[in-house]
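Problem 12. The chain below contains 325 residues. Write out its predicted structure in token notation.
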Amino acid sequence: MGYVRFLLSIAALSVLSACSGTHSLSVGTGLNNSSTVASHTVAGGVQSKETPLATARPVAKITTGSPADKLIALTFDDGPRPYVLFGSKTAHPAQGLVDILDQNGVKATFFVVGWRLTPKTWGEPRHEEDIGVSCLDAAERLIQRGHELEDHTYSHLELRSAEKKNGEQWVMHDVDRGAQAIKAVTGTQPRYVRPPDWILTDDARRDLQKQGYRVLTISSENPMALRDVNSLDYLCAGKAVGCPKPSLPDAVLQQIGQREKKGTYTHILAFHELSTTAAIMPRLISDLKARGYRFVTLTEYMKLVEPKPGETMKQQAAVTKPVKF
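Solution.
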């Protein structure tokens, strides 16, 4: 029997050796994310994926060189803006952001402004084109297409200044009023709030968290994976004064590269509903997929990235640390 066990051991080792070779397999997509090819050639190099010790879903590819689950939560502020979402009707029509996302298999999270969700509202008359679709209709279409709505307040006022003028209760009411407008569309209470310009007093932040909101921030007090990446896309609108060089997509990719050097491969990207932003999305999405990233909604992102109760970010990172063979 000892000799038989020895032969079985030799056979098992042979199978493991055969399985350790490189295979071009892809990871399953799911409803809220796009198909990600396991290995890609990027700028003359090979970008590959690895299998972690434990993830929320099985990973088909076993290689070395980069973390196995590279995630992007793509978010857009300040809408709904129908002419951005569904395309301009001017003499130079532009493709709508929603169609661009659909064509690329991406589901996004939209931080919408509550006043826009009132009936018969289609935006700011002086600055926004009326394409015959109200903001409320646009919000409903976003939900129908599988995107998420979260809270960007009701008024879209800078909340620290508003608190100084009107008191903290006004701020709390403004956030709640925005949430109720969203709930009337989605049927569910928003969980996340992104204050305009990320500006909020510490007291208001704590009180919002006590009420069950998760406040998104760019503060370095948060772990990097739970910190927004400010795309600076608003600098590329209008006269484009201060737009990042050499281009907006390159600047965003550079920020992501800097975070990768620090060991972070999961990112919440903060953009705005702007025509100039919609125009760069095809290239940005393509480049991020080529780097091995897959796109998820903010809700799914937080389920995968946030530490579990009693677990620190460091402990969670250890659990999902790739195995090298």
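Discussion. DSSP finds eleven helices and twelve strands in the chain. Students who got a different answer should revisit the alignment rule from Section 12.3.
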